[in-house]
C-alpha cells in the first residue's frame, strides 16, 4: 500500500506524546529508585530494631532467670532456717518434757510407795467386805433352800390331794411375810454388791491412771526413765494383783446372788399360787353382826 505521510499537527502531537512518555518514564524510574533506597534503609532499620529487641528480650530473660535463681536460693535458705527453728523448738520441748519427767519421777519414787500401801490397805478392807457379803449370801442361800424344800413338800402334798387343797389366810401370811422380807434382803444385797464392785473398779482405776502417767512421762526418754518406771510399777503390782483377785471374787458373789434371786422368784411364785380358803368360801357372818344389821334395818323402816 502506498504510504501516507502524517499531517504536521499529528506529527507534532506524536512527538510531544513521545517526549512526555519518556519524561514520565524517567521520573517514575527515579521515583522507584528512591523508593527502593528508602525500602533498603527501612529494612536495615527494621532488622536493627528486631536485633535490638531480641537482645533486650534475651537480657530481660537472663535477668529474670537470675532473679528467680536468687529467690529460689533465698527460699531454700528460709526453709533451712525454718527447719533449724523447728528442730530447736523440738529440742526445747524435749528438754522441758525431760525436766518435767525428772520432777515427776522424783515425786513418784515416794508417792508410788505411799499409794501402794494405801491401795493394799484399801484392798484388805474391800476383801473383808467381800467376805462378809459372801457369808451373808451363803446364809441367805441356805435360808432360801430350806424354804424352797418346805414349799416343794407343800406342793407335793397339794398334788397328792384329790380335792382342792386350801389353807387359811393365817397359814399363808407367814409365807407372804417371808417373801416381803427376802425381797428387802435382795435389794440390800444388790446395793452392797454394786457398791463393792464400784469401789474395786475405782481402786483399779487409780492404778491404771498412775500406770498411764508413768508410761507417758517415761516416753520422753525411755533410756533414762525405764528403771524409775519399773520401780514405780513394782510398788503397785501387789495391790493390783489383790484387786484383780478381789474383782473375780466379787464376780463369783454376783453369780451367787443371781442364783439366790432365781430361788427367791420360784419361792415368790410358789407362795403366790397358794390358795386361801377365804378367797373361795366366804366365812359366815357372825350372829351379832347379823342381829345388828336386822335391828338397824327395822329401825329405819319405822
If you had to describe this structure to a student in words, what would you say it looks like?
The protein starts with 7 loop residues before the first helix and ends with a helix. The chain has a domain at 109-159 and 167-281. It is mostly helical. Helix 1 (8-160) packs across helix 2, helix 1 crosses helix 3 and helix 2 (169-218) packs antiparallel against helix 3. It has helices at 8-160, 169-218, 222-273, 277-280, 287-301.
Helical content class: over 70%
Euclidean distance between termini CA atoms: 191 Å
State Rg.
60 Å
Mean pLDDT: 80
Order of helices and strands: HHHHH
Count of DSSP-assigned helices: 5
Name the beta content range.
under 5%
pLDDT < 50 stretches: none
Major pleated sheet? none
Number of strands: 0
Name the shape in a single word. elongated
Q: Which structural category fits the helices and strands?
A: mainly alpha
